[in-house]
Every structure is written in C-alpha cells, then in structure tokens.
Design goal:
Blueprint: E1 3-9, E2 17-20, E3 25-30, H1 36-48, E4 67-74, E5 78-84, E6 88-92, E7 95-96, H2 100-104, E8 109-112, H3 118-121, H4 124-138, H5 142-162, H6 169-200, E9 211-216, H7 225-231, H8 233-239, E10 250-255, E11 258-259, H9 260-263, H10 266-287, E12 293-297, H11 305-318, E13 321-326, E14 341-346, E15 349-353
Parallel strand pairs: 3-13, 3-14, 8-12, 12-13
Antiparallel strand pairs: 1-2, 1-4, 4-5, 5-6, 6-7, 9-10, 10-11, 14-15
Helix pairs in contact: 4-6, 4-10, 5-6, 6-10, 10-11
The chain binds adenosine-5'-diphosphate (ADP) and magnesium ion.
The site of adenosine-5'-diphosphate (ADP) has 15 residues, from helix 1.
C-alpha cells in the first residue's frame, strides 16, 4: 500500500497540516532541526502504531499539547491515530481496533537511517527482527506460530521462575517445539533468500568484499531442540529461564569469512547495512505483490554521491513508495526526469515545492 494523504495535528514540532504524497517518490528537504525526521516518524507511526525514535509515543506529542492526531489515506483503507498521555486510539476505516497488529499488517514500512548500522553491529535480536519483519508481511501462518511460540515460552519460563509444577515442563516443551521449528524454518529460508540477493549484486555498494550470511540455531548444532531442552533442564530450573531455543538464534554476517562488524570500516559497514535492507526489500517484493513504504533519513550524511546514486537506482527498481530526507533541496541524478514530489520543512512548517 502507499499513503496518498497525511493529516497531522500537534505531532512533534510540526505545524498542523494536510499533505498529498506522490505514490513513488517524495523528497523532503530542510535545515537541521526543521522537522524532517518528525515527518517520517508521523508516516511510520501511522503504519505501525509505534515510533522508531522512542518506545514512548507520548514523546511525540507536541510540547504543551495534550495529544497528537494522525490521519492517513492509503490505497484501500484509511487509518486514524490519536495519542494522549493516558489514551491511545487506533482506527481503521473508522472502527477502533484493539490489536495493533491489524494496523501493522496493512502496510509494510521500514526505515534506513543512521541506526541501520545496528543490524550488523547490534545484538542478535536486531538481526532476528529484521528477518521476522519480512516473514510477518508474507507468511500467513507466521503470526499464529509466533503467538503459539510466545505463549509456550512464557508459560515455560513461568514454571522455571517460580519452580512450581516443574512436572509440567514436558507438556510445555511439546507446545514450544513445533512453532519454534516452523518459525526457524521460515527464518532460514529468508536468510538464504537475502544472502542470494546480496550475492547477486549489492547495488555496487561493496564490490570488493565477499559477503555471506550464516544462520546459527540457539542451541548446540549437533542436537535437536528436544534434546537441547532435555539436556538443559536442570540448568533452566536453576536459572529460572529457558536457555536453548530460537530466542537465541543468530545470523552471522561475514565479510571475506570474518565477522563483518570486526573487519569492515565504518563506511563499509554503513553500505553493507543498507545493502542488507535492500536485499530484504527485494525478498519481500518477490514474495508478495504488496507495495512497501521505505523511509530514507539523511542518506547524504551516510554515504558519498555515487553510492547514494546506486542506492536510489536499486530502490527505484524495486518499486516502493519512498520518502527521502536531505538537508539541501537536492534532486539525486537518477531521480531527475522522473515524476516526484518535493516538500520543504522550515521550523516545523511543511510546504510542497515545485519539483523543477
Ligand atoms: N514533542 C516535541 N514537541 C515539540 N518539538 C519537538 C518535540 N520533539 C522534538 N521536538 C523538536 O523538533 C525539532 C525537529 O526535529 P527533527 O524532526 O529531528 O528535525 P530534522 O530531522 O529536520 O533535523 C527539533 O528541534 C526538536 O527539538
Ligand atoms: Mg533528522
């Protein structure tokens, strides 16, 4: 899905406004502190019901105001969100929804910004989430397996923590294993697809380095999950939580056979992280007809002109709705001659600009 119109009220430093977006390319310019990232954040919140900037959506309410409102028109639905200090309301086509996942399911959205580097240098959890994001939007059974898995793991950990009814562990192990293996299978498949895209071309971003991905399960490689759970049982009871499981899986990213985070320069790491996002977007696009929204925050601060050009070229090929921020009202070479919209932000005021 793409977003055609956004209305916002009292969101961050932005002046209340209604904007009509281009279905594929939107360029946003403005000085530091003008409100560019806040505009991207508003689009993100409207798709996800959460922010990429803070766990507390309350922080996005304009200072000295009681609440913010967001309203968006997408291809085939409308979404409205209101957040005050003690209330959070999400509406889809006018009806209040109870589960955020209903909104999240509608439009896949992701962001490339300075934090994208964490995909390589951050915790295994960040890499698992990166794979899970793809699966969530493509595999219909993913959500169900995820819920079963979360429930079983929670129950198991509860038994371990309170050391009561440990005889029920066998029962919960049975419930835990099947969804765990189903989810892990998906993850391995997606990891393989992403690795394939990386091999077949990194958008010219890291041609001199051989990148590979290895999926490592969160228990000893010679054991089944059942065996690992059995073997760890005493240890689990002592510690009060489950050691072995897919919550410990990791994707190792290697450059010429060495952990990428250890050997690549910061510039190379930035380019690799962007290449990994591009590979995930390609994977998602291939498996699903759904349109994706991609926010690209301040890429000029991240990489040189020619690398940026390659990134934009690849993103345009994938077919996404793009929102790209930059300080200067600069139109990248590959976008010139194409149809797009520009916006300029000044002290929180967003104005459409002529794109010539
Ligand atoms: N809740 C808020 N209410 C009002 N202003 C805010 C709020 N949160 C952040 N700001 C201000 O919004 C301004 C714009 O931030 P940002 O969107 O990050 O700008 P840019 O991305 O253009 O550099 C900053 O000056 C910041 O201090
Ligand atoms: Mg910014």
């Amino acid at each position: 899905m793409s977003i055609s119109q956004l209305s916002l009220t009292d969101f961050r430093n932005l002046q209340s406004t209604t904007l009509d977006f281009h279905p594929s390319i939107n360029l946003i310019s403005g000085d530091n502190g003008s409100g560019k990232t806040s505009l991207l954040e508003a689009v993100f919140v409207l798709c996800q019901g959460r922010s990429f900037r803070s766990h507390h959506l309350k922080k996005s309410i304009q200072h000295d105001k009681n609440s913010f409102l967001l309203f968006g028109r997408f291809n085939d639905y409308k979404a409205g969100l209101s957040k005050s200090s003690d209330k959070f309301d999400i509406r889809v086509d006018g009806e209040t929804i109870k589960r955020r996942s209903i909104l999240v399911n509608k439009t896949p959205i992701n962001i490339i910004n300075a934090d994208s580097l964490n995909l390589i240098t951050g915790s295994p959890q960040q890499r698992r989430q990166y794979l899970d994001w793809c699966m969530f939007h493509v595999e219909h059974s993913y959500g169900e397996y995820w819920q079963q898995y979360q429930h079983a793991l929670k129950q198991r950990n509860k038994l371990l923590k309170f050391k009561k009814d440990v005889n029920l562990l066998d029962y919960w192990d049975d419930y835990l294993i099947q969804p765990s293996l189903a989810l892990q299978n998906y993850r391995k498949t997606y990891c393989g697809e992403i690795a394939r895209h990386i091999k077949s071309g990194m958008a010219g971003l890291l041609d001199d380095v051989d990148i590979s991905l290895e999926y490592h399960q969160g228990w000893h490689s010679s054991m089944s999950l059942q065996e690992a759970l059995n073997k760890n049982r005493e240890k689990d009871i002592r510690a009060g939580f489950t050691h072995a499981g897919i919550h410990r899986d990791n994707i190792q990213i290697l450059a010429d056979g060495h952990p990428a985070a250890d050997v690549l320069s910061r510039g190379q790491l930035k380019r690799l992280s962007i290449a990994l996002f591009i590979a995930a977007l390609k994977t998602l696009r291939q498996k699903s007809e759904r349109q994706l929204i991609l926010l690209v925050d301040d890429l000029r601060a991240e990489m040189d002109e020619s690398a940026q050009g390659k990134v934009y070229e690849t993103l345009l090929e994938i077919g996404l709705q793009l929102f790209i921020t930059n300080i200067e009202p600069h139109v990248p070479e590959v976008i010139r001659g194409k149809d797009f919209k520009m916006f300029h932000v000044e002290h929180g005021m967003i104005k459409p600009r002529k794109s010539s």
